[in-house]
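User: Here's a structure from my thesis project, written as structure tokens. My advisor, Dr. K., wants to see whether a designed sequence matches the one we expressed. Can you design one independently, without my sequence as a hint?
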């Protein structure tokens, strides 16, 4: 009897998405997985040479341009940039509010001759 081995269909290199290639590149560069482990785990053709190409194209030192991203990643990147701007504005507002409160406390302490701020340290 001949045994027929069922081979798992290996994806062609073109079938790996750019986001997958970028993820693998960053995992390898950060030391979370070795190149050999990635080759075996994800059944990558041409082995180390393919990974070297991916690292060169998608590695940590590469600045991501919008052209390199998938549509979902573009939306996520743009929404994160918007959120960062909102948080920076909120931080600036909080800093200004803190300055205003500190100034009001200074004026109140000076005019009323009382201490409003508590002393740091354990209770005496």
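Assistant: Designed independently from the structure alone:
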């Amino acid at each position: 009897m001949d045994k027929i081995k069922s081979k798992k269909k290996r994806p062609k290199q073109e079938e790996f998405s750019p986001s997958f290639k970028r993820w693998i590149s960053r995992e390898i560069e950060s030391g979370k997985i070795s190149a050999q482990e990635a080759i075996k785990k994800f059944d990558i053709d041409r082995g180390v040479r393919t990974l070297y190409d991916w690292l060169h194209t998608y590695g940590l030192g590469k600045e991501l341009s919008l052209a390199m991203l998938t549509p979902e990643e573009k939306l996520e990147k743009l929404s994160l940039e918007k959120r960062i701007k909102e948080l920076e504005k909120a931080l600036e507002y909080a800093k200004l509010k803190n300055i205003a409160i500190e100034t009001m406390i200074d004026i109140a302490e000076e005019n009323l001759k009382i201490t409003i701020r508590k002393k740091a340290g354990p209770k005496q």
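When you compare it with your expressed construct, this may help: Residues 12-62 form one domain.
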